[in-house]
Structure prediction request, 239 residues.
Amino acid sequence: MKCRVCLFCAAAGLLPAPPAMAFCRVPQPRLVCAEYFASQLVVEATLVQASVLHDKDDPQGISAHVYTLGVSRVVRGNIAGTIRVYEGNDSGRATFDWAPGTKYLLFLSYMPSEKYWELDGCGNSGPLSLAETALSEIGVIQAAHDGGIIHGVVSRQALSTPIAGVHVEAQGNKGHYAATTDEKGEFHIKVPAGRYSIRAVETGLSFVTADISYEGPRRIRIEPGGCAQVQLAEAGNPR
Prediction:
């Protein structure tokens, strides 16, 4: 499971939050060009209030933290005013600390089934003072008019062992493209903007989507200046 932070409308008090304790899994790092288009909302916002929520079965225990932020700039999407961030008190917490008065760059996605927004705590969200590189990349994305890149990794079932020399194909409405994995098991395929399906081809092996893959290899959408991140793993059963 990818570490997540959720944007949620909830009552908030004045208690500060303790240090974050996120557990991030590969593939890392999350590329800005991929997270930007995977997010429905990207904002700059200032933390004005923090509180804790207690577990009803354990009144002394903390089940979640709630952060209220004022939006100062919308980079992607449409929202205004105040937002409140709900963050479960578990290993899925953000890798950065929340501090009142601090400005943040947040990449958010809406979860209609749960009626809240969420962000990947291991992604590019974090203090605005450390977001110069991310904002620079966003500027390039917003000015782009051509295609993007499909990034990926092919590995053994353990995921920590890459497989070099695997032929990877991208088939889409704008044509057919291919690349070969390097010694790190990585591949990079430059493609025009459009929709694509990815598959890895190696004699005697078959591959499936890894549980930790950010994007699904069968339904990839590349926007101008954008990218996608795919993790494929050996299926274990020969063709």
